[in-house]
Amino acid sequence: MREDESERGSASYRVVIEYDGTDFCGFQFQPQERTIAGELEAVLSRLFGQTIKVTGAGRTDAGVHALGQVISFTAHDAFPVERLAIALNSALPADLSARDAARVEPRFSARLSATERHYFYVVLASKRPSAAMRRFSHFEHRELDLDRMRRGAAGFVGTHDFASFCGVPPDNGDTVRTVRGVEILEHRELVLIHTRANGFVHRMVRIMVGTLLEIGCGRRPEDSLPAIFEARDRSAAGLTAPPQGLFLAGVTYPDFSSERAFV
Amino acid sequence: MREDESERGSASYRVVIEYDGTDFCGFQFQPQERTIAGELEAVLSRLFGQTIKVTGAGRTDAGVHALGQVISFTAHDAFPVERLAIALNSALPADLSARDAARVEPRFSARLSATERHYFYVVLASKRPSAAMRRFSHFEHRELDLDRMRRGAAGFVGTHDFASFCGVPPDNGDTVRTVRGVEILEHRELVLIHTRANGFVHRMVRIMVGTLLEIGCGRRPEDSLPAIFEARDRSAAGLTAPPQGLFLAGVTYPDFSSERAFV
C-alpha cells in the first residue's frame, strides 16, 4: 500500500485471536495448506471486500495453540470495529476465534511493536497417556525431578545467544533474545512450563522444554546450559518437545496485553 | 457365558478409561456407529481371542468426555493383567485410553457395584467463544450470578425424584436418586459445576446444569427446584446443556475410586 492511500481513509486494526492448533499447518500463510493466517485473510478479505494480509505476533508452528495471539492488518475504515470480532466469529471455523478487535495507530505491528511474549508448555507427567488431554499436552512417562528442572531453567533467564535453541535461524541471523522468566508449576499430573521473553527464535520454547525434560529425568546435568549456549549448535541442546503441549498465552505491547488464562 | 465356564479359568477385569468424547456417538455400543464400548470390545476381543462385552459405570452420551470412566468384563484368565492397560493403549485410538487395569471378583460390575459417580461440567462464561476450549466447554455469553446458582443448586442435594431432569426414563422406571453434593467453582472465565450422586438418570447432569444456567442469568427464580421436582415433567426443568462441557470425573466403589483430575 502506498503512503497516500493509507492517508486516504485506510485504518489499522489489532485483533486478539485464539486457536486450537491441532488441525492447522501453523500460523504463516502457505498456499494449499490450512493455516491460521490463510483462514483469517480469507474471512477478512471477504468482510472488507479487499485483499487483506495479516501480521502475527508469534509465528506458531503446526500443532501449536494460542490463547492470546495478536494480529494486525490495514484496510479501509468503513467496517465498524466494535462489530469486527463478532463478524469474524460468525465466519471463522470453530477452531479459530477472535476475542477482541481494536483500531490502532498506523505504525502498530502485532509483531514489531510487541515487547514481550508469554508461552506455556503443558506436560502430562504420568505413567499412562490421557485421551482427554492428548491434543493439549505432551505425555511424559519418565519420572521428572521438578526441582532439578527449576534449577536448570534458571540458566535461561537473561540475555543469551539462543543459536543452540533455534530451528531455522531468522533472516537477519540474530539469535540473541532476553528471557525474562521461566516458571515451572505443578497441578496434580500436569507440569506447566511458563516462559516470557522479548522474543523467541524458531522452535525456541520447544527446544528449551525438550532440554529441561532431559534435565528433569536425569539424562543431562542441571548445570549444562552455559555449555549449550556456548556451543551455538542446535545438536548441543535437547530434543524438540512436540508441538501439542505449547500455547502462546499472550503478547505484551507498551499499552496493551492479550494475556488469557483459564485456570 | 454359562456358569460352569466362568468357573473354569475365566476371570473378571476392571479397567479405568479416559476419552475425549467429541468424535464418539456415546458410550453404549451401536452397530454402524463409533462408540466407546464398540472400540473397547473390538480391541479386547482381539487381545483375548474371544468375544468380549463390556459394562460401563456411566453410559455417557455422544460428545460427553470421561477422565475416570470404569468398565468391567469377563474373559479367560490367560492375559497378564499388569500388561493389559499398555496393550490396550497400543491398540486403541488416540481419543480413548486405558489408565489402569485390575482383576476383580466375579460379581463385580462397573455399573451395579458403583456407590457414587462424580461429574463436572465446564462453562466458559465469557463475551466471546474460545476456539481452544470449544471441545471441552459450553460457551455462555449471558452474565451469570454464581451466588444465585449456588443457592439454587443447594436444592438438588438429597434424595429426590428426578423425573423432571430425565431424558429417557430407565427400564425400571425408577427416577429417584440421591445427590450428595453440587459445588460451583470459578477459575477466571471458567465455571465448573461438580456434582456427585449415587447415580444419575439419563441426561440428568446436563438438565441440572441447563436449569442452573437459567437461574444464574435470572430467567428462573432461584427457589424453583421444589416445584420442578413436584411436576415430574421434563418440560418443567431447563434446557439440556450441550454435551461438550460434561466430564465423568470418577466412579467410587466400596474399595476403589477412579477419580482423576488435572487441576
Please explain how this structure is put together.
Two copies of one chain form a homodimer. The first copy, chain A, is an alpha+beta fold and 263 residues long. Chain A has two domains: 5-104, Pseudouridine synthase I, catalytic domain, N-terminal subdomain (Alpha-Beta Plaits, 2-Layer Sandwich); 116-254, Pseudouridine synthase I, catalytic domain, C-terminal subdomain (Alpha-Beta Plaits). Chain A has helices at 3-7, 36-48, 84-91, 146-153, 204-216, 225-231, and strands at 10-19, 55-56, 65-76, 96-104, 116-125, 138-140, 158-161, 176-187, 190-197, 246-253, 256-257. In chain A, strands 1, 2, 3, 4, 5, 6, 7, 8, 9, 10 and 11 form an eleven-stranded mixed β-sheet that branches. The interface between A and B is medium-sized, with 35 and 35 residues.
What labels would you give this structure?
11 strands, alpha+beta, globular, 263 residues, Alpha-Beta Plaits, homodimer, 6 helices, 11-stranded mixed sheet, 2 domains
Write the SSE topology.
The structure is a homodimer of 263-residue chains.
Chain A (H helix, E strand, L loop, with lengths): L2 H5 L2 E10 L16 H13 L6 E2 L8 E12 L7 H8 L4 E9 L11 E10 L12 E3 L5 H8 L4 E4 L14 E12 L2 E8 L6 H13 L8 H7 L14 E8 L2 E2 L6
Parallel strand pairs in A: 3-10, 5-6
Antiparallel strand pairs in A: 1-3, 1-4, 2-3, 5-9, 5-10, 7-8, 8-9, 10-11
Helix pairs in contact in A: 4-5
